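Progress against Task 2.4 (sequence-to-structure conversion) is shown through the following example record, which the project officer requested during the mid-term review.
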Amino acid sequence: MIIDSHTHIREGKGQVKDFLKAMDANNIDMAIVHPIVPGSEDLGYSDNAFVGKLVKEYPDRLMGYACVVPTEEGACDELRRAVEEWGLRGLKLHPPLQNFSLLDPRVGPVIETCAELDLPILIHTGPIYSRTARLEYSDSTPIDSLAIRYPNAKFIIAHGNPFTLDPIMVAKHPNVYMDTTIVFSQWLNLFPQLGPAIYEFMRSDDRIMFGTDANPLRTHRFAENLEPLLKMDVSAERKEKLLCGNIKKLLKLA
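Structure tokens generated for the chain above:
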């Protein structure tokens, strides 16, 4: 089984049927769809209700995370509604697009709500090409402080970079995970021997998961992200955990 833990579908930005067809072509069984609020003309629009409706329409293929702006009033209430009304299974935060620092104290109540509801928190880190995004908020290292401050919360470093402190944070904290979306796979293409070394840096094979950032207009990302991982010189057991086992365990699907 293969679960893509990091994808997007947005209103008016391609067809869901093309997305599902590309999943089939790459033997991907399920995908987790992330909204990003607020939306924009260049990125498109995808809120919790939109993703919730997709999940209900395709329950055997799609799961969803919620997204809220944690510095806005009512963010915790909106998060609870997303879980209760739409069955969303985690929280996506995008500090560069949502224009906040992870160390802003206003973020705390949302993290505490996720800990209470046992929702993983996936946090965008690294490159973002949108003109309005604030790159100063794309640094992953504040996750280290959050992991210490909120030991009962679970944090996923999106776009985990093997040449930064990301794998060290995974090794350091039992509540920190990372996904392979875009960045990890790009480095593997350049340095195929990197895979086993990263597992040594992380000191774990239980907290890394496959993702692609694919969307209906960029379905090529399924293969681009998956193929370098399939070629990695690591055990079949580690690949199974990477491709589905770890995310299933994190979301209590098995």
